Amino acid sequence: MLFLPLLMLPVCEVFSSFLPLLMEKDMAMVSRQELVVAQREDPSLKEMFSEVLAPEEVASAMSGCFVEDGLLLRKWLSGREVPIGEPYEQVVVPMSLRDTVLRWAHGDVVGHLGVNKTYNHLLHYFYWPQLKKDVRRFIKTCSTCQLTGKPNQCLKPAPLYPIPVIDTPFQHLIIDCVGPLPPSKSGSAYLLTVMCQNTRYPAAYPLRSITTRAIVKAMTQFISVFGIPRVIQSDQGSNFTSHMFKEVLQQLGVKQNQSSAYHPQSQGALERFHQTLKSLLRAYCVELKGDWEEGLPWLMLAAREVVQDSLGFSPNQLVFGHKVRGPLALLHDGLKEVSDPPQGLLQYVEGFRRRLFLAGQMAKENLLNKQKKMKRLFDRNTESRVFCPGDQVLALLPLPTSPFCAKFLGPYTVVRQVSEQNYLISTPERKRHSQLCHV
Fold this sequence. Notes:
Layout: E1 3-5, H1 11-14, H2 32-41, H3 46-50, H4 55-58, E2 64-68, E3 71-76, E4 88-92, H5 95-105, H6 115-123, E5 126-127, H7 131-140, H8 143-148, E6 172-178, E7 190-196, E8 202-207, H9 212-226, E9 231-234, H10 238-241, H11 243-252, E10 255-258, H12 268-288, H13 292-305, H14 315-320, H15 327-336, H16 345-378, E11 392-399, E12 402-417, E13 422-426, E14 434-438
Parallel strand pairs: 4-5, 6-9, 9-10
Antiparallel strand pairs: 1-11, 2-3, 3-4, 6-7, 7-8, 11-12, 12-13, 13-14
Helix pairs in contact: 6-7, 12-13
Domain Integrase catalytic: 165-323
Keywords: Signal
Signal peptide: 1-16
């Protein structure tokens, strides 16, 4: 899930209005005399007062500041209008009234225009030092614009934080569900996918439903082969956050990590495998006209044989210490008519342990190098985002009426920082009163 900061302003400044220092007092209710006094008391206008034109210079001047009956004004003419136009007489706005002027220039009545259009429109009537900077700040923190979005308004991503490299195989598992798929002959319409974060070894189990009970039963098959992990990472689906699932993990002594909602990149390795698996299943069904569940074991064999770019080895090599004999090996051996020479048990075990150790070390080194390179390239166009408890943010969340659609909603309040990239926000009006969100 992606968060949009409201530039971490106090609550009174957040809600699109930038409530003026005069509270709800309209400009029309500010008298000329009050404006004159506010100008004189504003330290940011001292330099402009010191540069006012002499009374006899005002009529002929095309630009510059002047005082008329105590009111500070400014003559201005845009470059394109110099040959044909008359200079505009801008009212110089003190700090106490600037947010009100900005609210009038960028509000529901005049439309939420962009920075340049709002700035150019303001110049015909008002001026103050660093006007464009204030216009940009105001529009950037306008909650209406953030909620509705602008075609050319792009938020830079946060810097990349690579997933930590795990040393021991099958100690950290990533799990997820795929589906619904076209029902197989046995009635399966979903898959539970499991991946070892260290070796990228994948497994997939057909399911008729993705209830917690069905998921736990499938997980038992994986654990019976590869052992009980220390950590299981999942998304925030109800089947993974249920009391039953948490109770099972607690009984097994397994810690559960939950990825941020609407941020599948935090389970990136498994999400990429999902794309590969769906492609394999689709091709199998089209080519062989077969049932996808019948072909799944063979497709998994093929997927585990493929060398991972980030690791430099296939999952089979990192788990078993050698290449598993698959269809290509079968064809190769048949063409060469070769057979494996006999090998002593001790010799085999020593070779197996050596190959497994070296492959694991090289895979770890390759992954670290790949992550460093990816982070260096990715971070060239990013900006860090840090929030504090109490900050107001927008969050990408599913719509209550349409769970498969999401948009930026809020503002919501940041409760606390969970990790360098994740924050817990308060969502009191939603079914889940708090959400874990990724920056």
